[in-house]
Design brief:
This protein is of the alpha+beta class. The protein has three domains: 58 residues; 92 residues, PH-domain like (Roll), CATH 2.30.29; 83 residues. It contains six helices and seven strands, in the order βααββββββαααα. The strands form two sheets. Strands 1-2-3-4 form a four-stranded antiparallel β-sheet. Strand 6 and strand 7 form a beta hairpin. Helix 1 packs antiparallel against helix 2 and helix 4 packs antiparallel against helix 6. The longest helix has 43 residues. It is flat. About 2% of the residues have low confidence.
Length: 257
């Protein structure tokens, strides 16, 4: 890293909590109506209404606290170390105590909904503990890999001449990479195959109800119905084809990274 490069960096929360408040409001109103109905029901003991009301107060109090604290969630780094401030706690690790900074791609990210982070930055400390860096993910940070490279450069410069990799922690980091790759691919195969099978089954039932399939003794239905739309093709061939396409796309994406 160039000597003139500023080691200080901050990745604050850049979204809005308005949608969270809007989504929370009808839940609160619904819970209030439920508690009122319980409280006014002569057949329900007052203790039950009190317990249910206390539960909802605690639940929505926790949710409101989370929403209020969300704008303060951030990741900071400077010449001393990296700080991850979450909604309910802050963790700071000095550079000499950092054993690795990785872009993690957990298996669940392979099938995550659109708009959900699929890859995010994590830090491994000298004890082997792993924690994520808030706002450093592929949803909130377009240049995720570039920013992680910057963090690594700052770490490598300021960790000190006495820093040594700890074999146990480094092995854990390596195992995590391999497990993510294997499990992620297996999860894609399973989900794709099952989804395609269900689609094929629904198509078969629909074609059967519609009278598309011939009865015994009927003439040859032709290539489309007899081969392409055959139940074996829809419930067997379709999952195989869909899985092959999904695996190919996944491997190409990994190679591009």
């Amino acid at each position: 890293m160039a000597d003139g490069m500023n080691p200080r960096r901050e990745y604050p929360f850049t979204g809005s909590t308005g949608a969270l408040w809007i989504g929370l409001a009808p839940l609160v109103l619904g819970a209030a109506a439920l508690v009122r109905d319980i409280a006014t029901d002569d057949g329900v003991p007052a203790a039950v209404a009190l317990a249910v009301g206390a539960f909802f107060v605690a639940l929505f109090g926790l949710a409101a606290t989370l929403v209020v604290r969300t704008p303060g969630v951030t990741t900071r780094c400077d010449e001393h170390g990296v700080t991850a401030r979450a909604a309910f706690g802050t963790r700071t690790t000095a550079w000499p105590d950092v054993q690795g900074i990785e872009v993690d791609a957990p298996p669940s990210g392979q099938i995550a909904a659109e708009g959900t982070p699929r890859r995010f930055a994590v830090v491994y400390d000298a004890t082997g503990r792993r924690y994520s860096l808030p706002n450093l993910d592929d949803r909130r940070c377009a240049a995720l890999d570039h920013e992680v490279d910057h963090l690594r450069a700052v770490w490598q410069r300021h960790r000190g001449a006495d820093w040594q990799p700890l074999t146990e922690v480094q092995d854990r980091i390596t195992r995590r990479r391999h497990v993510n790759a294997r499990v992620g691919l297996a999860l894609i195969v399973f989900v794709t195959a099952m989804s395609a099978f269900v689609v094929g089954l629904v198509l078969c039932v629909g074609l059967l109800v519609a009278g598309v399939y011939p009865q015994i003794g009927d003439p040859d239905p032709g290539f489309v119905v007899g081969t392409l739309l055959h139940p074996a093709a829809l419930m067997g061939g379709l999952p195989v084809l869909a899985t092959a396409v999904a695996v190919t796309i996944t491997l190409l994406r990994r190679r591009s990274h």
